[in-house]
């Protein structure tokens, strides 16, 4: 702290008082005023120098009176500088100045803290809430689901306004409207006519447009007719070529076939295995379902299972491509209609397609230079809670609609039966609706779909047999019955199911089941072989042909519940499929797992097969099917069988007449003998 010398303060006050009492200089004398200001500045500088010298002298005296302690860590700090003529500086700062700076810092920090405390006392939170975060009520699943909608799921319940709210009416100008010119093509469904407008406003113009929808409908009807007739025109042009059929057919590769046609396949079918093949009831169309693509380049979205439809009279490019979305296991045409196709999958789903739907409702892709329409199912059973199959669908077959008492006027278009691997058969009815579907509750029906499946009944053939999913996992439960094939005679409600325990189970789709309830294999093969194929004679429904896994073939009479014929080890391999001839009641065909086909003629010989021959050089996958026509006596319908190969190709074999036609006397004789 600076303390002036005695008498200095009094002298400075006296000098200042003298200056104040001095007369004011004349502002007009500029030189005198400048000299006075310069003299005053010199005097102020002299006073400041005198004060600075006194302050330095006092600091030096205070420093001399103190001792600087020794610091052994640094040689520079150990030196004690004593110089009477120079100022003492340690660490770049004079010691008294350093102490003064510390005091000033303490004072400034104390003052700032006081200011902050006074401000904090004045500041208060306008709105504060304390929420215990770990005591909130847990959200329900619906609340979590509703949060995904954010503000879209909110609605205004009401509006509350203050008492000073005032409603003021406003008046706006009416919106103006005027006619304008619009051009549209004539096939757009309307025709433009330019007419004079009543408007005289130059902003709106003087010409307007008028559309005549009645005359435009003619163009719409013409376009719809051409779309439907295009396919018929192509067929007529192909039939005009005399050599067209000859180009398609090849030499018969087998003794039992008169001709063979290889169905043309698309690149989408490369690398797929044929799962099942089937004919329509009238024999005009053939259908084959394929598994998922395992090799080859497949367009995106087409790797899942597919089903293709060919026209037998024109075995060229497939007419329809059906996308399953899952791994299909079997397929058939629904009821007596060739535009309904039903498929079962490995997961237990039933899919239904209506091939009459417009192609614009489905997605398209380019394959092999052609635009292909992939049709999604019109209906699938995944949305039917508690009604879907729980295991693989091993067989699906059409049922007789008359046995179900269906009425076409009520929308019933046929019925099918699906059998899952664990011997449960479900009867479905195909219902066609008047309008396209816009339902938001039926999750099984596709948008704009018009057909659906309705479950009529479900028959469980596993009574008395343990099932792995329902029985306890105990050591004594080591086997479960598995259904391998299903046969449904046309015109009846009987169901025959072949199981791996060596028996054929019989039941009905509705009503009380008639005997026999079970047919067993002969004692020589019962217990060691399963029934892998069954088929009911279409001309004599009381005759049942059965094929076993050990190669045995049996003929049963369901009327007498007795075994008529049996051929133990007739085939060297397990029987894959057995089918009766649709027009020759005493002839049937047997197909084994090593691709051998056998032909039996019971009128010529009952000791064994008349013919046995291997089909194709590559492995055959799946089963072959013989079409069943409504008019069995017509000679115009050829009896054909379809065979699918591992490579994905499908062949149509036309059977020779000696295996498909029967004389009237032989037919009556056989019926009298075996009925």
From TrEMBL:
Bias (Low complexity): 400-411
Spans annotated as Disordered: 382-413
Gene Ontology annotations for the cellular component aspect, listed alphabetically: cilium; cytoplasmic dynein complex
Molecular functions (GO terms): dynein heavy chain binding; dynein light chain binding
Gene Ontology biological-process entries: intraciliary transport
Signal peptide: none
InterPro entries reported in the protein's UniProt record: DYNC2I1 (IPR042505), WD40/YVTN_repeat-like_dom_sf (IPR015943), WD40_repeat_dom_sf (IPR036322), WD40_rpt (IPR001680)
PANTHER family (alphabetical): CYTOPLASMIC DYNEIN 2 INTERMEDIATE CHAIN 1, WD REPEAT DOMAIN 60
The protein's name: WD repeat domain 78
Organism: Palpitomonas bilix
Lineage: Eukaryota, Eukaryota incertae sedis
């Amino acid at each position: 702290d600076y303390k002036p010398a005695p008498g200095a303060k009094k002298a400075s006050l006296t000098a200042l008082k003298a200056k104040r009492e001095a007369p004011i200089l004349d502002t007009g004398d500029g030189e005198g005023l400048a000299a006075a200001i310069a003299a005053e500045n010199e005097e102020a500088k002299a006073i400041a120098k005198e004060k600075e010298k006194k302050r330095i002298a006092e600091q030096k005296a205070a420093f001399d009176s103190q001792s600087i302690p020794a610091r052994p860590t640094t040689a520079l700090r150990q030196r004690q500088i004593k110089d009477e003529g120079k100022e003492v500086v340690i660490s770049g700062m004079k010691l008294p100045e350093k102490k003064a700076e510390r005091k000033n810092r303490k004072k400034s920090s104390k003052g700032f803290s006081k200011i902050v405390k006074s401000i904090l006392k004045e500041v208060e939170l306008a709105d504060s809430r304390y929420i215990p975060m770990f005591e909130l009520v847990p959200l329900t699943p619906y609340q979590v689901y509703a949060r995904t909608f954010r503000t879209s799921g909110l609605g205004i319940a009401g509006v509350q306004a203050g008492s000073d709210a005032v409603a003021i009416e406003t008046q706006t100008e009416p919106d103006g409207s005027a006619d304008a010119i619009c051009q549209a093509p004539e096939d757009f469904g309307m025709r433009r006519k330019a007419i004079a407008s009543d408007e005289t406003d130059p902003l709106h113009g003087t010409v307007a447009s008028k559309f005549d929808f009645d005359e435009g409908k003619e163009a719409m009807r013409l376009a719809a007719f051409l779309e439907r007739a295009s396919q018929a025109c192509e067929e007529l042009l192909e039939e005009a070529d005399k050599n067209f059929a000859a180009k398609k057919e090849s030499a018969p590769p087998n003794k039992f076939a008169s001709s063979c046609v290889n169905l043309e396949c698309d690149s989408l079918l490369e690398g797929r295995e044929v799962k099942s093949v089937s004919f329509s009831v009238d024999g005009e169309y053939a259908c084959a379902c394929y598994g998922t693509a395992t090799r080859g380049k497949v367009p995106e979205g087409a790797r899942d299972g597919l089903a293709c439809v060919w026209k037998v009279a024109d075995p060229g490019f497939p007419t329809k491509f059906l996308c399953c979305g899952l791994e299909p296991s079997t397929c058939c045409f629904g009821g007596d209609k060739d535009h309904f196709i039903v498929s079962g999958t490995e997961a237990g789903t039933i899919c239904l397609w209506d091939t009459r739907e417009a192609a614009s409702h489905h997605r398209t892709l380019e394959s092999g230079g052609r635009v292909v329409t992939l049709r999604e199912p019109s209906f699938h059973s995944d949305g039917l809670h508690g009604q879907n199959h729980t295991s693989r669908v091993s067989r699906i077959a059409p049922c007789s609609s008359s046995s179900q008492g269906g009425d076409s006027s009520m929308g019933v278009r046929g019925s099918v039966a699906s059998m899952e691997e664990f011997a449960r058969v479900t009867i479905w009815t195909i219902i066609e609706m008047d309008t396209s579907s816009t339902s938001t509750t039926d999750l099984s029906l596709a948008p704009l779909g018009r057909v659906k499946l309705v479950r009529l009944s479900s028959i469980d053939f596993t009574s008395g047999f343990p099932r792995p999913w329902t029985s306890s996992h105990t050591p004594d439960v080591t086997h479960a019955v598995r259904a391998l094939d299903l046969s449904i005679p046309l015109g009846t409600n009987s169901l025959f199911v072949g199981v791996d325990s060596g028996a054929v189970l019989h039941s009905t789709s509705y009503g009380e089941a008639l005997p026999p309830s079970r047919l067993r294999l002969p004692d020589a093969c019962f217990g060691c072989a399963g029934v892998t194929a069954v088929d009911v004679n279409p001309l004599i429904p009381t005759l049942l042909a059965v094929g076993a896994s050990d190669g045995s073939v049996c003929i049963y009479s369901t009327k007498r519940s007795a075994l008529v014929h049996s051929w133990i080890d007739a085939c060297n391999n397990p029987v894959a499929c057995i089918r009766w001839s649709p027009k020759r009641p005493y002839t049937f065909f047997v197909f084994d797992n090593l691709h051998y086909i056998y032909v039996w003629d019971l009128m010529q010989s009952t000791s064994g097969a008349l013919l046995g021959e291997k089909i194709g050089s590559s492995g055959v996958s799946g089963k072959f099917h013989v079409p069943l026509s409504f008019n069995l006596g017509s000679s115009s319908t050829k009896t054909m069988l379809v065979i699918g190969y591992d490579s994905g190709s499908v062949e149509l074999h036309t059977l020779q007449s000696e295996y498909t036609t029967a004389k009237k006397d032989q037919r009556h004789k056989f019926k009298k003998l075996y009925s």
